[in-house]
Amino acid sequence: MKRDEILRRLNKTLAAGGAIIGAGCSAGIVAKCAELGGADLIICYSTGKSRIMGLRTEVIGHSNPRTLDMYEEISNVVQDTPIIAGIEANDQTTYDLNLVIDRFVDQGFDGFINFPTVGNHEHVSDFFVREYANIAASLGQPWGFAREVELIRRLRERDIFSMCYVFSPEQAARMAEVGVDVVCAHVGGTAGGLIGFPADPLAEALEDAQRIMEGAWDVNPDVICLAHGGPFAEPQDTAALYERTDAQGFVGASSIERIPIEKAVMSAVQAFKNHKIRQR
Predict the structure, then answer these.
(1) Is residue 233 very low, low, confident or very high in pLDDT (cuts 50, 70, 90)?
(2) 58-79: per-residue pLDDT in tens?
(3) Distance of alpha carbon 226 from alpha carbon 224, whole angstroms
């Protein structure tokens, strides 16, 4: 699906007053149901493998090949929803970013997001800023979050739909400057469910999300801004997001393919166990 068509659909949703929903899906059954539920974007993350394994969100193995391998299963059951891939820009096995992009485009993905991202590292630690700068100097090309920005710049040059995870207003501004289509304000690992991450208080997460989105809108007032993570774990949690920030939607990963599965399976098994058998 071409970039213009994806943006047309997203803007149509916004014009109707609806929230854009990006659904993290790493298995066919999740993607199939997410599309039937009305997801605007199906997003494939390598970390989905850990969630489906019953583990907390983490990268297991080599990220880009794992995400590439998801496409056939996901596209087989998704009929008419853009399928977005997480690209790890800082993949030391392939320094040529154009080659990385070509692999994902040739596989059939409709758009891309910078994931896994090192944005959080640079957001919280000057050590990583210096470390990535040293690597960039030795390689003679951008590294760290700068390489993720370069990824988005190249996608825009090729007129390919792009999204980005950012952790600060400054990062949001940098992504908006290179023409990203959708900014996703990341406010931390998702809380909730059986193995969620610790999350900042709701008020703090709302404030952070708004500041990040404003960083993007200061550069490009037309960029679409969504939120992800932290205390926003279940549908009812996002009510405050839309009431108290200008977020135009939500991206869920654990919120789509871990927490709902945990709840549904436990509920189903408990319901089956509630029946009593007839005595012989």
Answers:
(1) very high
(2) 999 999 999 999 999 999 999 9
(3) 7
Residues 6 or more apart whose CB falls under 8 angstroms from that of 88 comprise 46, 63, 64, 115, 116
For strands 182-186 and 224-228, give the pairing: parallel
Q: What is the mean pLDDT of residues 192-204?
A: 92
Contact yes or no for 257/52 (Cβ under 8 A): yes
Work out the angle at residue 160's Cα, subtended by the Cα atoms of residues 96 and 113, and round it to the nearest 5 degrees: 70
Asked if residue 208 has pLDDT above 90, the reply is: yes
DSSP three-state, residue 144: coil
Among candidates 13, 59, 71, which has minimal Cα distance to 189? 59
For β-strands 224-228 and 41-44, DSSP reports them as unpaired
Q: What pLDDT, on a 0 to 100 scale, did the predictor assign at position 124?
A: 87
pLDDT digits (tens, 9 = 90+) for 9-19: 999 999 999 99
How far is residue 203 from each of residues 28, 200, 206, 209, 229, measured CA to CA in Å? 35, 8, 5, 10, 14
Q: DSSP states of 63-99 as a string?
A: HHHHHHHHHHHHHHH--SS-EEEEE-S--TT---HHH
pTM recorded for the entire structure: 0.95
Q: Which of 146, 226, 143 shows the shortest CA–CA distance to 181?
A: 226
CB 193 within 8 A of CB 262: yes
Task: Please provide the size of the chain in residues.
Answer: 280
Residue found under tokens 């993949």: 91
The pair of structure tokens assigned to 236 is 């009812």
Q: Which residue shows structure tokens 């298995």?
A: 27
Angle separating helix axes 126-139 and 145-157, nearest 10 degrees: 60
